[in-house]
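seq:
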Amino acid sequence: MFNNNAVLGLDPVGGERVLLGTGIGFGVRPGDPVDASLIGKTFVPTHGTPPERLVRLLADIPADDLDLAAEVLDDVQDVLGPDAAEHVLLPLADHLSFVLRRTRDGAPAIEYPLQWEVPTLYPAEAALARRALRVVERVRGVRLPDAEAVPVALHFVNAQLGTADMSQTVQLTRVLTEVLQLIADDLGVRIDPDATVTARFITHLRYLVVDLRAERAPRSAPDDQMAAALRDARPREWGTAERVAALVGERFGRTVDPTEVPLLALHVDRLRAEGTR
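struct:
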């Protein structure tokens, strides 16, 4: 228990949750069941945002800024899904509170890195971020700088990856950029950031990295015969895929499962075909 209105609980499978609600912690001792009717909001601690940090954020964020972030997430729930708030509500509220305070004080707009990479690699999340800024303007009457779409979009990427750790998402963004450049240089083609094949490849890489960090096995892989046929038919693309796997593994300190290479080679072949049209 943290206080009368915040407790650390366990979900049915043993996962930690910070539970908020008026009086939820009153008279409760470790190991006691929580009255579900008192739960107002639920937050998922992560490596980047452990329970203690979640509670500190709650203490520092004005209630109306928390409500604003909740309204923003409600507006984009149709895309991000209903569980997004569990992972990013507090970090998003913290960011919005910070930038609203700077705007009120007349501070200059922040020049964020990844201004090109974020809308290029995450066009759907960037569009949602621009939509979120319109929600802020409608609710608060404050027009935030357009550049704020970058960090907001990264929060939305976090929501879909099930994490609140912004540093990991920034690292992922930089690695995705490196990978696309490697493919373009290897094959001598231009990678169209707006092409459907590029979006599918980026989605595949995003979940490959999620599985890599969690040390999970690949989600799917062609059988050995299909992989051998692909390697023989597309040796250049296969070699590029091996270099992509090596780069990703090196950047994240893991070994990419060799069964990922055929899938990467298929994506590389589609990117090559698109780039030579």
